[in-house]
Amino acid sequence: MKWLAHKDLVYWGDIDTHGFAILNSVRRSFGGARSMLMDRATLLAHEEQWVGEPNPTNEHLEALLPDEASLYTDLVEGVLGSSVRLEQERISYAAVLDATRQCR
């Protein structure tokens, strides 16, 4: 997978503790990987789409950027509610289109 190290990688996963754990894992292998639609603004804009995360994790994630780490901590600590999860398929189509245009 060395060829991936030279690509512009964008990761998009659920906004929940496991989504951030996967992003952390991707970044450990590919430090330049960016996230898309995994931010506080996206989460808050889709509050009516939140569901519960069945088994949240609380592991230390060292490869997250400061804004990502802050949101991850809030999810772990239940600041926004208990086991908050926004599945990627619940994000509005307009938000997805806008984000993918910005990633080019």
Query: Helix/strand/pairing class, anyone?
Result: mainly alpha
> Low-confidence spans: pLDDT under 50, at least 5 residues?
none
For this structure, the quaternary state is single chain
Share of helix, binned: 25-40%
Terminal Cα span:
22 Å
Main β sheet profile: 2 strands, parallel
Mean pLDDT: 95
* Total helical elements: 4
Please supply descriptive tags for the structure shown above.
globular, Wadjet protein JetD C-terminal domain-containing protein, two-stranded antiparallel ribbon, 104 residues, mainly alpha, two-stranded parallel ribbon
Report on this model:
Residues 2-97 form the Wadjet protein JetD C-terminal domain. It holds the Pfam family JetD_C. This is Wadjet protein JetD C-terminal domain-containing protein. InterPro entries: JetD_C. The chain contains four helices and four strands. With 104 residues, it is mainly alpha-helical. The longest helix is centred in the N-terminal third of the chain and has 13 residues, at 17-29. It is globular and about 40 Å long. The relative contact order is 0.23.
